[in-house]
Amino acid sequence: MDERGRLRLDAVARYLQDVAIDDVEETGWGAPEHLWVIRHVRIDVVAPFLEDGEVELLTWCSGMASLAAGRRWSLAGNRDGRIEVDSVWIHLGPDARPARLDGFSVYAEATAGRRVSTRLELPDPPPDGCRAPWPLRSTDIDTLGHLNNAAYWQAVEQRLLRSGPDPRRPFRALLDYRHPIDLDDHVELVEFGVDGCLGLAFVTKDLVNAVARLDPLPQQG
Fold it and tell me: What ranges do the domains of the chain cover?
């Protein structure tokens, strides 16, 4: 939690990863035979976790494509916190190359025939965006040698939520993962406005590796 007791986005992301790993290991779609690389995630903080001491997570497959699948999560707190998450993951074989989802019937029923797209949703940052270095830590790196998915949300917490929408009110957080970031990469964060909202790009050299955006959500009532 942050200093005011709000459940942070990077902590939410680690909950999501842990539950997803448990799920694919139980169904036989986990490592090392099957690897999953996240492409896009949408986190809707419908009711921020402010006084909750416990969280219950529910996950299911929300859609399929030939080389990708969608995963949904619902998070419910014991003091009325609620977060809804949708995401798209690219399926890789043990050689870390994209592989078709053959025999995915254990998840097919939950999809109800829905299809997912790996298309990127967020635009590139403008060339005149405000840039600042973002040092990486060895503890941010995963077993594939790349920046862990949840670590990106640390930058969102630090940069966007400081000057973006009030995190103690409903908001939406989007993140496109484009290219992996390695420990020895020199990363810059680029802040910019997009469609009246606040954006953040993760840039190495001239490559845009990831883009995040925060949007306010209507207050539930």
Answer: 1-119, 123-221
**CA pair distance 175, 145, nearest whole angstrom:** 20
SS3 of the chain: helix, strand, coil, percent, to 5: 20, 40, 40
Give the SS3 label for residue 72: strand
Element (H, E) at 152: helix 152-155
Topology adopted by domain 123-221? Thiol Ester Dehydrase; Chain A (3.10.129)
The continuous run of DSSP H or E covering 37 comes out as strand 35-47
pTM for this one? 0.93
Bridge-based pairing of strands 207-216 and 197-204 is antiparallel
What confidence tens digit (pLDDT) does each residue in 13-72 have? 999 999 999 999 999 999 999 999 999 999 999 999 999 999 999 999 999 999 999 999
pLDDT single digits (tens) 91-128: 999 999 999 999 999 998 899 999 999 999 999 998 88
Same fold: 1-119 with 123-221? yes
Q: What is the DSSP string of 87-135?
A: EEEEEE-TTSSB---TT-HHHHHHHTT-B------SPPPPTTSEEEE--
Averaged pLDDT score across all residues of the chain: 92
Q: What is the DSSP letter of 139?
A: G
CATH code that applies to domain 1-119: 3.10.129.10
First to last CA, the chain: 25
